[in-house]
Amino acid sequence: MFRPLKQTAAAFLFRTSRVLFKGRPSGERAVILNYHQLCEKEDLFLPALSVSVFRKQAGWLAENFKVISLEELASRQRKGLSLKNLAAITFDDGYADNYEFAFPILKALKLPATFFITTRFIDGEIPWFDRIKLTFRETKANKTRLRLNGRYYDIQLKTHEDRIRAISFVKNKLKIIPVSDLADYLTEIEERLNVIVKPLYSRRMMRWEQIREMSDAGMTIGSHTCSHPILSILSENELRTEIVQSKARLEEELNRPIRTFCYPNGKAEDFGERAKRVLKEAGYDCAVTTEIGFVRKQTNLYELPRMYTTIHHLPSFAMKIRFGRNK
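The chain above was modelled as a monomer; its predicted structure follows.
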């Protein structure tokens, strides 16, 4: 009931009072947009923003903001320069649809963006969270009993809704498991549900030559670690490996310095002071989170908030980006 009313109100303001959206000062703050995947055909188990929605959002951003690279935004904030009406676009993980769909749209609109790459995913490792999604999508089981982080759970799988809930539940349990144990848990789940994911996993991540092409075209490439772990649960050596080796791998492939970083999962409890210290020591200039908010002059460059972009209704998206909750 309330969502249609909000959308109607947003649409009315959007159509009849464009001055609210175009040219209106947004204060001394910038906004960083957080994207992941794009799609042409919806899959409930592999959620992504439709290409047509992204094209509309990108067009609106081009008309209403000065879109700059994340590196430039961080540099301006560091120097105390104005952040008024600035926006930066980011994509996480390194999915192939970023190259296939987002890159051409961004080029056509002459918009820069930053693509955060999880290096082992590009080297052929299937993202652990995609293994979970595909396992629960493909299984013929109606229920199961799974061992997760030392405990057993009974899980219903009769309906699509059951399976979506199961995916969220299992992901939340496994994301806090040490990286060294994660593969065993994933294999056990696949065996329990009688699914072999690898043959089902078509090439969903970018290739190195595609990443190089985007980099050469002016897109920024940043690190999203080697294997996408929760950094706060890692040992000091594991933490340093994820941060330093991912940077080195990207620099080896792209032959240019990597200065930007994106925390996996991205909430404050997922990285902490240790990670920020190692990032600075490794030579990163800034890092983005998944905390919601705007970038202001006093914002910590290693705790940059972003705005989610999953709102399909363009006027509601515009309202969120212009006036969304500040952190």
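Residues 126 and 201 are 8 Å apart (CA to CA).
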